[in-house]
Design brief:
This protein is α/β, with parallel strands linked by helices and 429 residues long. It folds into 2 domains: 54-115 and 285-428, Rossmann fold (3-Layer(aba) Sandwich), CATH 3.40.50; 125-282, 3-Layer(aba) Sandwich (Dimethylsulfoxide Reductase, domain 2), CATH 3.40.228.10. The chain has helices at residues 44-50, 67-80, 94-107, 125-129, 136-142, 153-156, 160-164, 201-212, 225-237, 254-267, 288-299, 322-327, 342-350, 408-428; strands spanning 17-18, 59-60, 63-64, 84-87, 110-111, 145-149, 175-180, 191-195, 241-246, 272-277, 333-337, 356-361, 372-376, 385-388, 394-397. The strands form 3 sheets. Strands 3-2-13-12-11-4-5 form a 7-stranded mixed β-sheet, with helices on one face. It has a 5-stranded parallel β-sheet with strand order 8-7-6-9-10, with helices on both faces. The chain has a 3-stranded mixed β-sheet with strand order 1-15-14. Helix 2 (67-80) crosses helix 14 and helix 3 packs parallel to helix 14 (408-428). The structure holds iron/sulfur cluster. Residues 22, 24-25, 27-29, 38, 43, 45-46, 49, 157-159 line the site of iron/sulfur cluster.
């Protein structure tokens, strides 16, 4: 049967509206009872998100100034730059990402939001071989066997187990198995852990596939027979199998490729799907899925876009990702939405000629070795918009409070207009 890449998830028809959506990570938890705070749960990250740090002020090269002057200087900087990189987009709602894309196209800028798959030469697995995926709620409600594939959801997605694994399943007791370096759950009659190294994941996927289909496997490194027979027995007994995996830790992309093949084969026999978790709290923002989807629809790839052009962009994984562009000195200006991502800070710290930085942020950025302009915007908590949860579900964010500062989207629109004015004035002269 031919295999085609899965389409990006279509947004739900009726996105749920909650006045309490936590944007602390890509789970976008919206299950709080009315009037309750995300800190009512055991999620420590939600508490940090609610009480997050110092608000930004508008500055040019460290000097506090008016919005007017900062916009003019930012537009001049962007127009004077040889090549700009637009980055940090995972913090932004979909509406702001749309305006940032228009700006990038006007500047013929590179775009990369720092997604881990963009920095590896094989690029995203979904683009190479497709993936059979499902919503988190399908995992919660249907999967009576969950296999954690060399991942530790608690480390990256604090409430994932509580919300989608620990709740009871109507068809009976859920069995869980973890394969890899972390047990994920304590061992019990319902949970087994098989310790495997990263290198053992690919042959294990192939052995499981062959054993499930009762086909001989040749030239594969041997795995403990007990592992294969126990996991295959569990897969045969299950009515529906969900695999939870991590994209961030698969640096070569081979493990996710092997898992995608295994899940596809299983899905020919019974309901089976994969939940490829993104970076969660390490993704650089809660809307990494929204960023990936927006860029894929507009440019044909989720990041590492060498030149933003909606009529045809070049996708260069491990070439045009943010860190490499900075390391190679191929960009002289960064337009950053939100706080500076860790990879960008590291790149600036080691660059021979650090690029100028224009940061549109609600949090005071740490000083870096660059000439920096800060355009202070309203807190994400005071901004309406829409984001995509990591499984593609559309979540509407309702502001919790108000701000006198412009929203990120409004600031990008003002900057776009200022660039238009200044480039027009330049042409007239
Ligand atoms: S898991 Fe993520 S979205 Fe959910 S409450 Fe914690 S930080 Fe917020």
């Amino acid at each position: 049967m031919p295999t085609t890449p899965s389409q990006p998830h279509a947004p739900s028809q009726s996105p749920p509206a909650s006045d309490t959506v936590c944007t602390g990570c890509g789970l976008l938890c919206d299950d709080y009872a009315a009037g309750h705070q995300p800190t009512d749960t055991r999620c420590l990250v939600a508490g940090q998100w609610l009480n997050s740090a110092t608000a930004a002020t508008t500055t040019v090269f460290g000097r506090q100034t008016s919005l007017e002057e900062a916009l003019t200087k930012s537009a001049s900087q962007l127009l004077a730059s040889q090549r700009t990189l637009v980055t940090g987009l995972a913090t932004a709602p979909l509406e702001a990402i749309g305006v940032a894309s228009q700006l990038a196209e006007k500047l013929a800028a590179a775009i990369d939001g720092g997604l881990a798959e963009m920095a590896r030469t094989t690029g995203p697995t979904i683009a190479r071989v497709g993936e059979v995926t499902a919503a988190f709620e399908e995992l919660r409600d249907r999967a009576d066997l969950v296999i954690f594939w060399n991942c530790d959801p608690s480390a990256t997605h604090p409430r994932f187990l509580e919300r989608f694994i620990e709740s009871p399943i109507s068809s009976g007791r859920r069995q869980t198995i973890s394969l890899g370096g972390t047990s994920v759950l304590p061992s019990s009659a319902h949970h087994r852990h098989f310790q495997l190294t990263d290198e053992q994941m690919v042959p294990t996927a192939r052995l499981l596939q062959h054993a499930f289909e009762k086909r001989p496997a040749q030239n594969l490194a041997t795995q403990p027979e007990l592992l294969i027979s126990e996991v295959v027995a569990a897969m045969q007994q299950a009515n529906c199998i969900g695999f939870v995996s991590a994209t961030e830790t698969d640096h070569l992309g081979l493990s996710s490729w092997a898992l995608a093949q295994l899940v596809r084969r299983l899905a020919h026999h019974k309901p089976a799907f994969q939940i490829p978790l993104g970076g969660g709290i390490a993704a650089g923002g809660p809307n990494a899925a929204g960023l990936a989807t927006r860029c894929t629809w507009r440019y044909g790839s989720p990041g590492a876009i060498a030149t933003a052009d909606c009529d045809g962009s070049r996708f260069e994984p491990a070439e045009a990702d943010a860190r490499r562009l900075i390391d190679r000195g191929e960009v002289d200006c960064l337009l950053v939405l939100g706080p500076l991502p860790a990879a960008v800070k590291e790149g600036i710290a080691t660059a021979q000629n650090p690029p100028a930085v224009i940061a549109l942020t609600d949090l005071a950025p740490e000083p870096v070795r660059s000439q920096m302009i800060v355009l202070a915007v309203a807190s994400a908590r005071a901004t309406a918009g829409t984001m995509l949860r990591e499984d593609g579900r559309l979540v509407r964010i309702i502001p919790r409070g108000s701000s006198a500062l412009p929203t990120l989207e409004a600031m990008l629109t003002m900057l776009n207009e200022r660039i238009q004015q200044q480039s027009g004035a330049g042409e007239e002269r």
